[in-house]
Amino acid sequence: MAHEADHGRRTSSRRRRSARSRALHITAWGVATVLLLATAAVGCLYLKLNGNIRGIDINALLGRDRPRDVDNGSMDILVLGSDSRSGANAEAGGGQDDGTARSDTAMIVHVYPGHRRAGVVSIPRDTLVDRPSCAKPGGGTAPAASNEMFNEAYAVGGPACTVKTVETMTGIRMDHYMEIDFTGFQRLIDALGGVSVTTSRAISDNESHLHLPAGTHHLNGKQALGLVRTRHGVGDGSDLGRIRLQQAFLKALVDRVDSIGVLGSPARLYKIASTATGAITTDSELASVKKLVNLGESLKNLGSKHISMVTMPVRYDPADPNRVVPLTAQTEKVWAALRADRPIPRSATKGSAGDEVDTGGVVRSTPQARDGGPE
Q1: Which of 3, 38, 74, 133 could cross-link 144 (Cys pair, CB 3.0–4.6 Å)?
Q2: Which pLDDT score is estimated for 193?
Q3: What's the whole-model pTM score?
Q4: Considering only 125-134, 138-147, 206-215, which range has the smallest mean pLDDT?
Q5: What is the Cα–Cα distance from 202 to 196, expressed in whole angstroms?
Q6: How far is 321 from 316, CA to CA, in rounded Å?
């Protein structure tokens, strides 16, 4: 009987370890999402975690005038990092609250059918685009505008206007929306125990409060936020160089989360899940632990090696070097590839300012320690 009891405990233990391992295999853009699989270890706290999540009913706000909803197993997610400086974000963002927020970072994540590959397209926030008319959060309608910076859509009409602008640009319906702000990002990295990166040369940027010598670093939340926000420490000082850094960091983030999966204690898993659910805003269709867990489960076989990342093809605006404009023909190649579930062709980004900006491979992922993360 003792032998059978020991065997039962070992089997149960292996099952628990296996479940946690599968639960924490994450993709970069969905880090806050798939982390919620950890709630399986703390099911009694389900309702508390569920109450952390903020949801926005994008479908109700946009109505039916949207691209066709393709049901072939693919998925498109718009991920935003917002730059609100209200509340705790003022300190994290290094600025004062001006009463508005903009999309500081924007990525379209296209998950191909089968959910084993994904393409990520970063949209420079300074891109001049044609914005459609949008409902204002406080009432009324903002008329359509031409040659307006992409991140103004968020300032004008919040998440729904940003989604509408992206769908108008791409002809692709966004299945889901996720947003994380300065404070949420910083807390999430700290909850993960930090992320390791290697810099090929020193990065120094007083504006983002980041000073790193060349070498390997295990970044805490504040340092990680400085890295993904710096635009003066690398490249040509533009948003395009910063996007290249963000893409490199996100792959390091994938590796970090994967590295702590099998060693996480229930207490640590709960802390990470609690932080994640409190850090994000999603569309209402994802605004529950159960739905986020289902999404995470569908993405569990998607690793960093299966993610391709590009920047939307652009050139500097001849009238204003602080702005960029889309390379129309090449940009359409990108959207057409995603609509057809094909890889983005290299010809689509050749000659793009985003493809040519020199960051010197300054940041790359580093093997992540397997003993990190808070208890």
Answers
A1: 133
A2: 86
A3: 0.78
A4: 206-215
A5: 15
A6: 6
